[in-house]
Amino acid sequence: MKHNTQPTGRWLLLFLAGFGGLMLFFGSAAVAGAARGLALCGSTVIPSLFPFFVLSGTLIGMGAGDALAQKLAKPLRRWFGIAPQGGMALVMGLLGGYPLGARAVCNLYEEKRITQTDAQRLLCFANNTGPSFFVGAVGLGVFGSVKIGLLLYLIHALSALLVGRFFAVLRSQPRSPYSVQPFNASRQRFAAAFSQAVVSSCSSMLAISGFVVFFSALLSVGKQLLPALDAPLLSGLLEMTSGVMALRDLAPLTAFCLASCIISWGGLCVHCQTLSIVYAAGLEPRGYLTGKLLHALTATALCLPVAAILFGHPAERWLFWLIPAAFLLLMLIFAKFAKKRTSISCQNCV
């Protein structure tokens, strides 16, 4: 296995060495970018994520995931093909924000509440942006409307669920029986669970803030060489919040669609945060990046009809409805074809 990782390590060393050299020539830009990253962490990242990190860690530590699993057992098994205990990660991922979903998945896996297969499948669609970011940073900060932020969040959440269903069909396997354990609040006392969640969340927030600051500096230096990185979509591919904030100067219809795409993708900065948590838990993020790419495409397609109703012209609305319909039809056809192939190949599975 070492011979497969050595080329990646060399490229990473070359990249870091090159970035260090660029910082010598564009030191002021790097410092300004890092300062913006710190300000972003203090104003948006930490306030919107830290409380949810502590809450999810406390609930999982006290065993609340078992109580939630009792309610979500059937739909989780039927629609997503995962153990009912994974419902805690899915709910927290939809409500908390990046990378809380991945954090919850890893917590459940480390607690041996879900299997490695279920954890890897959950990572493909349970790591998402929460409603607080959509309403505050996107709705009010970009569009000046809570309604638009909530609409974008609903599209984002629905797209994540569709991606989860797609992967369930694509990777269908013979289902093994799962038992839902009864809720046991004494599994860990509140004081111990809360204290452990706070300490663990502080460590995670420090790592997340470090990623944000680094990528803000990287983006600032990169703009000195490639002015095209000022474009919201390109900057959003690297760092989500910076790309979203750059949408303020665009037309509302374009900003609406690009916001859905950028946030559902998450950005390279978010992926580095997520992968650091995943690898620390001993998991392999199989399908994670594919899931985020599919999430971005699905969310962009679904937001087109809504954008046509909110901002578009009547003559163009038929096209805005045709694109998502064709996209979902292609997903359905591909899933049906993959299901037939998987059903044949699974006969040889152990």
Give the SSE layout.
Blueprint: H1 2-25, H2 27-62, H3 64-80, H4 87-95, H5 100-110, H6 116-123, H7 131-143, H8 146-170, H9 190-225, H10 232-238, H11 240-245, H12 252-265, H13 267-280, H14 288-310, H15 317-345
Helix pairs in contact: 1-2, 2-5, 2-9, 4-5, 5-6, 7-8, 8-12, 8-14, 8-15, 9-13, 10-12, 12-14, 14-15
Features:
single chain, 350 residues, mainly alpha, 78% helix
3D structure, described in words:
- With about 350 residues, the protein is mainly alpha-helical.
- It has one domain.
- About 80% of the residues lie in helices and about 0% in strands.
- The chain contains 15 helices and no strands.
- Helix 2 packs across helix 5 (about 100-110), helix 2 runs antiparallel to helix 9 and helix 14 runs antiparallel to helix 15.
- The radius of gyration is 21 Å and the shape is globular.
Catalogue the unreliable spans.
1-8, 179-186, 342-350
One letter per element, helices H and strands E, the order comes to HHHHHHHHHHHHHHH
> How many domains would you count in the coordinates?
1
Total DSSP helices: 15
Secondary-structure-based class equals mainly alpha
Major beta-sheet overview: none
User: What spatial form do the alpha-carbon principal axes imply?
Assistant: globular
- Give me the count of strands: 0
* CA distance, first residue to last residue: 24 Å
Beta-strand content bin: under 5%
Oligomer category: single chain
The Cα radius of gyration reads 21 Å
Helix content: over 70%
pLDDT average, as an integer? 79
